[in-house]
Queue: 3 jobs
Job 1
Amino acid sequence: TSYRMVAINLRPLGMDELLQSLNSQYGDILELWFGSNRAVVLCHPKYMVKIHQTSTKSKYIKRFQNINNPDGKEYGIVDSGVFNNNDIHGSWKFNRMVFSNALMRPKLDRDALQWTIELVEEMESYWKRAGIIIDDNDMNKALIEDKEIINLPDWMRRFTYDMIYRIAIGTKGDALNSYTNKLCGLNTYETESNSIIKSTQTYAEGIMYFRLFSKFVRNYFPYIRGIIRSNKNIGERSEDGDDIKNSFVMFGGGLRMCPGRKLAMIELKCLVTMIYRKYDVELVDMNVPLKTKSTFLTSCEELLFRLKLRK
């Protein structure tokens, strides 16, 4: 089954919605054509076993098969760093070794634990200054003010920025403080940290456009309309069931597994432990589905909750 994408309004493109729709129609294996670029989409975890092989001889290790495509090099998503580098036996191998040695050191684990504790305590002080935390007196209010609602992604992006800043440079970042000042009306200008965070988000979202559409299409096709050849569900390509092995792989697999996974788990466990030991976390609306956005990466766009001091 193939789905030829001749043109789409690129602005509201959501890859998760697109692929879920195609999966429901065509099953767990489908073929996509983005202009002249062909892609095979695997929608079931069992097909990912070979892709996650821990061998440099695996034919699936390259993220972008069209390595010589000038569009990828123009955007800087191939032949550099670790995440999308296809120079497996050259710069990728060296960069991977540097990242692994730097991020998997026992000393960094101890330092990261202490830095996370300090950063969470600092974030708590900002919540108190911004009037976000609800105490016993506030619980008697008939209506809770909007300022006491926390959007988790906004705070976590700045928490991550400050943590990376500390690990990479060794000095304290200022993203959380700047964001708190903005909430309190003390900052009326665009801070450097906020500008970097926005630029990082824009860069990640733009990868899909450079990956899937040629330079000619990006520049001269403002709207592209899809032509679906068939709308028939192929039952033999679909599988049911919730208990599926490897259906959620947080840090990837194989040689492309994230080298910072240990550090990320230290931060996550420490953050959750320190928040739940002092506060009751309450979602603003239990019935609202989680708002996510999928392009090259899947991210949470909105998760509203309140913090109440425990008695």
Note: The longest helix spans residues 106-129.
Job 2
Amino acid sequence: MCRACAQDHRAALSCRERIGDYLARLPLLSHLAPEEVEELTAASCPRELCDGQWLFAEGEPADRFFLVRAGQIVLFRQSADGRECIVAVVGQDELLGEEQIFDEHPVRSLNARAVGPTALLSISRNSLRRLVDQSPTVRHAFLQTIDRRQRLLLDHIERLTLQNAQGRLVAYLLGEAKLSPDGRRVRLRIPKHALASHLAIQPETLSRVMSRLKASGKIREERGSMLLDTARLREDLEPAENLGPSWGCPGPPPGDDTLRRPGR
């Protein structure tokens, strides 16, 4: 073997080892046997996207799953006139498309696009489905993940249906704060125009609400992030409205700021 070929071979082995180590650390796949990790590693390949680059489009065959290793992917629907509704933001170590693992002829139900430089791991659907069929533990982990996503969808429907613009934003920020180590600091994962779409409000309405919360001292900007006064923000919400991190679905038309609970 020539020196260049030997170097390429060593690089390929090193890449496979890194992919295998990464897969074995993920909670969703942590119960796999070493030979199962090796099988999944062989069926995986790295992929990188630039900011704004599409990963897939609605209606395409869903023949591969994607793990987000770094960066973020937005899932969205697009209307005939080009308007977008952000359905979800998928971040580091999260899987794209697990709800379609049991479909016999799956197709993409959403569009997917990178937010910032994004590194992914593309995994063959057939290989992953084979492991799910063979391992009750992996199948249970997938079902738990799908159930969690469904509950978050219902939470987001409630958020969009029963709250006004400020309530939607406050619930979203409190949910995001739960993901931070101190439970108070939030760094927006998507641009503000995308967040407005996700919350089904106009961008200018989002700006006004954000300014109002800052003026009241409930939100303070600090080193590129927002520090929340979570106790005061929770006072703005009823218990049923204090929802978790958002993995949502389409809501009222953009700009709708009129929906409130009856009697409010």
Note: The first strand starts at residue 44 and ends at 49.
Job 3
Amino acid sequence: MLAGHAVALLCLTWGAYQSLAIPRVTECSLSCPQGFACKSLVSRGNIFNSFCQQPPASMPRSVLGALGLSTAMKCSPPDGCSLLLRVNASLTLHESLQGLEVCSTSLDTQETQCQTVQVPRASHRQAGQQLQVRFDCFKVGVAQSLYVTLRTVPHFCGVQLGQQYHTEDCREEDVGKNVPDCFAQKLSYWVDRSRKVILVQVPESGGPDYYVRLCLKRFICEDAGAPVRVIGNRVSRRVSLPYSQELSCLCLEVWSATPDAVRIQTCPFKNDTESLWDAIRYHPGSQALSWEPACPMRGRVSLCWQPGPGAHCLELKHSGRPARGRVQYPLVDTQPQLCLKVSGPDHNLPRALPGLAEGSEEPDKGPTALGQGTHGQMSPSALPSPRVQPPSSPSNPSWANSGGRGFVTNLRGPWRPA
């Protein structure tokens, strides 16, 4: 009896595992019910089917019954697996119908791929019967957003179905283990601060080639060096990428050498704040103070008054500016207690930087040789806020308490007028 329960539990467990795995297909195919001859035509979209015509009075608007979408996987060892979109459609046969057209549009690139199925004209005896059609040949990518439309051929006005669909990402176990686009997340990297290089290591398992590059994540990730191709089956799988400055928006971007591959990004210095203060400029002649960081930021900039080392910095009224683009303060009189503060959701460790405020200490930057990067935390890029030039008008500073946390630097030393 116990053995029977064990077998039943094993069967249930294996059945649950199979239901979670993405179905495999060996080749692209078109499936129609027995007795119907369907023919598939692949195209980028039929312009003549873009214009609709009025349906005959005998055709019901519900002639398209259903549209079902799912993901399938086609594997070709040793190159790995690719994802396919599986489309299940149903229609009611009508003597005016010649076929179906299914189009899949990427919401990211607006690229469209279509497939048309020709069906024989229905006889009076066949009219009204349900026909199930399945398409398996739409190539899709990992974590892709699609919009799928189903229309009749010819295209009758008002007779159309549409549905949005998102393919699985690398967090799905079956996809993460088998799709080459996800292998980039298994790459490891190290930051060699003494040589100012980032070392990238490719896993020793077989697989596709990769491209790696450094880029500055602004509105898009702009080139900060030429892409380097990493050959997957070579003995040496380490590449060295030099950088000039440790910027919070300096990112490592990796993608497989396959068409339309997903690009994975990680930013090794995203928590470093030293570069914030390299953007401060004081002009002794005009007494203007400007701040323009090399990386986009969220938050605000303000002037504040720090009575003593380690004391709370009191924000000056009317000095707050959005931390977007270039911020300028005219007629700034440098005083030992006058500071610049940057605060925001990404910056919550207030401190005075070394050499600019009394009592400050050199921050611990960690090891100066190899500091290993974080594995498996590369994520698709997120678009930063657009850069906006804030207004800069003179204001008479006054005292006010600051409730925000942020970074503070003293306006002495390099910014004291000669």
Note: Confidence is low (pLDDT under 50) at residues 1-19, 348-406, 412-418.
